[in-house]
Amino acid sequence: MSSALSSVYAVCSDAAGVAGNLFAFGLFVSPIPTFRRIVRNQSTEHFSGLPYIYSFLNCLICLWYGTPLVSPGVILVATVNSIGAVFQFFYIIIFILYAERAKKLKMTGLLLAVFVLFAIIVFVSVKVLDPGVRQPFVGYLSVASLISMFASPLFIIKLVIKTRSVEFMPFYLSLSTFLMSLSFFAYGILKCDAFIYVSTSSLLADKAAFCAQIFVPNGIGTILGLVQLALYFHFSSTWSEDSREPLIDTYA
């Protein structure tokens, strides 16, 4: 009975993990309509590039976390975030190309800061920390970056409430955030189930760290995604049908 339940949990957890990766890819490609608009209008208008900076930093940290040097056996974390990093980098480059001078300088500086910060993280991980400390160090950094990435679209809430318009809070971004966070939250619950883990002190310590890294950011991401969806449905009836173009940015 225990073996059968363990197999069911393993299948369900893998399914949740695959779903999370699919929704993550959906999150990566969701900015495409906005950047088509930016290229078409030759301007970034009132959009902000900060969400892409946060996302790029998060993808780099999570990519590093998934490498064998940090976390052997979770290469899928590295692959999905490497794809995400490429998407976010190109979004940032396009944003810089079409932004006005002030935004261009700001975004260029932030992009360079991301590379410097990531280089420091890699250097400290490899040259300063022991292998046993390396994984939790990078893991908790990824938690912080994930929370920042999930929270960044909420900058638009004040504008949404003030204008009673959801033009700058896109439905697909909010939905992708919610579904991805919910999938990985479920993945964490299933992976932390007693049928999968053996109750030894060392494994329980690893289990606690794993649960914190999964539950905290994705639990917050689920709540924030739900808040965005609630706002969207509340104000969507007042949004002009003529302006119904999916956007993903926040007001500068």
Automatic annotation (TrEMBL):
Location of the protein in the cell: Cell membrane; Endomembrane system
Family: Belongs to the SWEET sugar transporter family.
Topology term for the membrane: Multi-pass membrane protein
Signal sequence, start to end: none
Membrane-spanning ranges: 6-29, 50-67, 73-98, 110-128, 140-161, 168-190, 210-235
Gene Ontology molecular function, alphabetical: sugar transmembrane transporter activity
Name the record gives this protein: Bidirectional sugar transporter SWEET
Major location category of this protein: membrane
